[in-house]
Write a structure and sequence with these properties.
8 strands; two-stranded antiparallel sheet; alpha+beta; 239 residues
Length: 239
């Protein structure tokens, strides 16, 4: 069994490969020995967006999310979200998974890194304890890209989206959609096509910032205090 950042990424790319979903590069080989590793990927020629780029992307992501290939939340192995470790131990409950392995893990990391502040630390602890009141169980676990912002897709030679640099796990599909909205860059046609294929559940807009709190905590841990105000704002909104 391979270990390391590249082996985890290869496992995620293999999981994402499907006829229905967006294209991903095929991982050909990975190798790890002590502090050296490599990942050999399919070369994908880049191109210009096709006229239906956003519609095709939205439909294909919805179809990826619709696949029922797991009955629990997590993944077959831990991986990374950016440079941060991402724990993916299997859980039966989505709120419990998100509370412990997403928010709880990042909160503890922020405490160790010295970024947590007393005036919101306790509030976030309380928020984590009552996450089941704020996040419903989804219809089924969906395979997620996990880090779906504008820098983690490219345009292939056919003019359509290719997913790269995943942080794969099975979770609520709303988490992927929320991430696309965190930093922007996705056209409204993407969301229209996604919802035509598989409408989001009522109340998603009220859960979006809570789902993105995971990514903002991760950015706080990776890049420092410039993200503290965003974290604090969301914590107090839901507290």
């Amino acid at each position: 069994r391979y270990t390391g950042l590249f082996a985890a990424e290869a496992a995620g790319l293999r999981a994402l490969r499907s006829e229905e979903g967006p294209r991903v590069p095929e991982p050909y080989a990975e190798w790890v020995e002590r502090d050296r590793q490599f990942l050999l990927l399919e070369f994908i020629e880049s191109g210009r967006k096709a006229e239906d780029f956003w519609e095709d992307f939205g439909r294909r992501l919805a179809r990826l999310h619709a696949r029922k290939t797991a009955n629990r939340f997590g993944f077959e192995r831990d991986n990374h979200i950016g440079a941060s470790p991402q724990h993916n131990a299997w859980e039966e409950s989505w709120p419990r998974f998100f509370a412990t392995q997403r928010l709880g893990f990042q909160l503890e990391l922020a405490r160790k890194n010295g970024y947590a502040r007393a005036h919101w630390f306790a509030s976030l602890e309380g928020l984590i304890e009552r996450i089941a009141d704020l996040l419903p169980e989804p219809e089924h676990p969906s395979l997620l890209h996990g880090d779906l912002w504008g820098g983690n897709f490219m345009v292939g030679s056919d003019g359509h989206a290719v997913l790269i640099d995943p942080a794969v796990y099975y979770g609520d599909r709303e988490a992927d959609i929320a991430m696309t909205e965190l930093f922007g860059g996705f056209a409204s046609r993407f969301y229209d096509a996604y919802n035509m294929e598989r409408p989001l559940s009522p109340g998603y807009a009220g859960r979006r910032e809570l789902l993105n709190l995971y990514h903002l905590l991760n950015h706080l841990n990776l890049f420092g205090g410039s993200y503290a105000a965003s974290v604090e704002s969301i914590v107090f909104r839901y507290s």
